[in-house]
Amino acid sequence: MILTIDGLFEILMLLCFASAWPFSIWKLYKSKSTKGKSIVFSGIVMAGYIFGIANKYIMNEVNYVLFFYFFDLGLVIVDSLLYLRNRMYENAASN
What we know:
single chain, mainly alpha, Monooxygenase
């Protein structure tokens, strides 16, 4: 597959989005707190990536860019799972 300019810009956009998630994941992992975190926001972002992935398949544009959609989606899933873990910690501490 040949790297096209539109594919390059799409990859760069996805990498920019992906660059923020490791910081959020690290913060959630270390703090064991849900303060300042919105699971609804994460759900909306996940939906956006899923729609982007669906668009690639519907438009028959399955190419190397798809990897970056799955990578970003994976980061948001990890972030959301840590949120749920931290909420369990907070619920256990309050009981």
